[in-house]
Design a protein that fits this description.
mainly alpha, two-stranded antiparallel ribbon, 5 helices, flat, transmembrane helix, transmembrane, PTS_Sugar-EIIC/EIIB, cell membrane
Length: 123
């Protein structure tokens, strides 16, 4: 429940601001994993693990707070055009993976990431 909430809240927030919701959701889920405490075994060679309890309702508060915060930071960077710029020698498919798609300005290449239908961008 916590992991799904982290992704879903960031996805919805980013879509409201016309940025790539999938990328914002992935960033939020990554932040959720980073902030969740891990467990260590007391063996000679310690083994690190991830407790399942924080994936459920125990991690929901953290998921809500950091889902909203990471999506706000993500959309702020995209809307202020603060992105990784790749040189012209980099193939376009690789360069597009470093930027979110902005449908509001008509720069949408992939209809899966945008709220508008595919035909409206052609006309």
């Amino acid at each position: 429940m916590g992991l799904i909430a982290a992704f879903g809240i960031a996805w919805s927030y980013a879509n409201q601001y016309k940025t790539d919701g999938v990328s914002a959701g992935i960033v939020s889920a990554s932040v959720f994993f980073i902030l969740t405490p891990s467990i260590m075994s007391g063996d000679k060679v310690p083994v690190e693990g991830f407790p399942y309890t924080y994936l459920g309702s125990r991690g929901l508060f953290v998921a809500i707070i950091f889902g909203l915060l990471s999506a706000w930071i993500f959309q702020w960077f995209i809307n202020h055009n603060i992105q990784i710029k790749m040189p012209a020698t980099v193939p376009p498919a690789v360069a597009k993976s470093f930027s979110a798609y902005d449908c509001a300005n008509g720069k949408c290449d992939y209809h899966l990431f945008c709220n508008e239908p595919r035909l409206s961008s052609i006309m």
